[in-house]
Amino acid sequence: MNPAANTLGGAASPYLRQHADNPVHWQQWTPQALAEAAERDVPILLSVGYAACHWCHVMAHESFEDDEVAAVMNSGFVCVKVDREERPDIDAVYMNATVALTGQGGWPMTCFLTPDGRPFFCGTYYPKAAFLQLLSAITETWRNRRGEVEQASDRIADELRAIASGLPGGGPEVQPALCDHAVAAVLRDEDTVRGGFGGAPKFPPSALLEALLRHYERTGSPHSLTAVARTCTAMARGGIYDQLAGGFARYSVDDAWVVPHFEKMLYDNALLLRVYAHWARRTGDALARRVAGETARFLLVELTDADMFTSSLDADADGREGSTYVWTPAQLAEVLGDADGRWAADIFAVTPSGTFENGSSVLQLPKDPDDPARFERVRDALRAARLNRPQPNRDDKVVTAWNGLAITALAEASVALQAPELADAARRCAAALISLHLVDGRLRRASLGGVVGESAAILEDHAMLATGLLTLYQLTGDGTWLATATELLDIALAHFADPDRPGRWFDSADDAEQLVLRPADPLDGATPSGASSVTEALLIAAHLVSGERAERYRQAAADALRAHSPLLQRAPRSAGHWLAVAECAVRGPLQIAVACDPSQSALLAEARRLAPGGAVVVGGAAGSSQLLAGRGRVDGADAAYVCRGGVCDMPVTTTPELMAALGVPE
User: Fold this and answer.
1) How far apart are CA 558 and CA 579, in angstroms?
2) pTM
């Protein structure tokens, strides 16, 4: 059988389309590709990456665009290319295998599989010479030592199943003491000099920061708030933050947030927008407000397409990493003139020796300049000049889960920043996403250019979108958002919950494509896990619906928290979002229902501003929502009802009374 030609030209993924002109006979992951491998009796060469990945581009240029390498790949393998963002289920299975075999993972991920999908050798990036040697060795082993391949693939498959089933069993009920223990463990790992946790490379610890903010709101712990302020300040003043146009890069290659890996991801910026908005709401910090506003603007200007949000901006431009963003003193002077150029070099820490390659520097902002008007004039001029440089490509794929994160962040930031236009953007995104991605009652993972893909949504898609819709419902009172959110949660309970282990969740649906292993990873990473995200959504929704459905949601959330409480005991840094959800849960979660006219209630506005992260806040006439059943205004005045779990305080009618009920200092 002749190998199929490259079939990626019609793919829905921009990452796959980047490889459509390769001489490699790439195919998408399909049953036909696996069948071809079986018919030809050759291994599958699986390459997994994503559009904004720098080292994916490097390996593509070195090997996949090379005729010599392509000839070897085509003759000895069925070559399959996967976008990890479009098929996170495939990525999860084979990343676990890669980590198990090598002790580390990353992208591009390079795996060799039997025709039925069992991995027998895995790695990441290989330079051309090493890759050719590896291809030769794999081919020789496949042809002449097939028994070793079968033994290795069976052993790896068994190990993956053991890892999946080896998570700790259910633990204790989540109580304040467990949250206190987890926070103390996290704070012991803080870099108290440079901010963040651990050493280089440093990733924005978004979920941990959200958890620490919620812990501060519950306990008043100054250490938690100090850690948030230290890390958020260091990131906002470092090179990981775009000092000219806003938005965060994916991570810093050093431990001081100076030099980023320049790709900008939707999920990072949505999560960080939420953190900075909450920091601003709670403290009024001027840096927090500015960075939150600029990050929101970055989403709306750089990543918006047809009201929804695209996935990322590339790390490279014109084949060079970071070339859009870095400056030398001479370049600053060329744009700004000598005087402003020297001033800009000083405030942005641009030096003759540089902080990046070839004497160039990534812009930082160690302190706020003493001339704000001059600062804005300089930034405007540099932004305009930067637009004349090669620009990074944008991955225009719309991912359901990450748009859910953006909806939540924009809606919450609209309250923190008193910016109703952000809530409007969240509503437009939600409407467009539901219209396109909800097909015949089931959710899809991604779309491109208004055309929805075939990939089924996974647990995080249902959970993160549901949370966004629940946030919109609380903000607008529009029951449509609540109805769709509960529909998604009912699907999650029916198709993703583990029927044999209460509180456990699979990442792929029971009726989705069956891989060599059904992925189920509860650990939080760069994004919250599907399991912690669905627990958050269930916890909120349980207080917005009634009857049997409310009890079902409440029990499912309680089961999930108990099932995963060992993570808070043993590995809280890998359970940052679980900790944020737990902080919310131990407060009830806090519920605030304001009987009022929502369009003009100052008390409702104060309730939204004062409510801690994760609280449920609704406003409206008596009986207009579940939390307002039987609750109305008091003596003609707007009234706020504060409840913790099923216990409610007497209604209050003034802001000082509300602050006292919430335990917020005046």
Assistant:
1) 14
2) 0.94
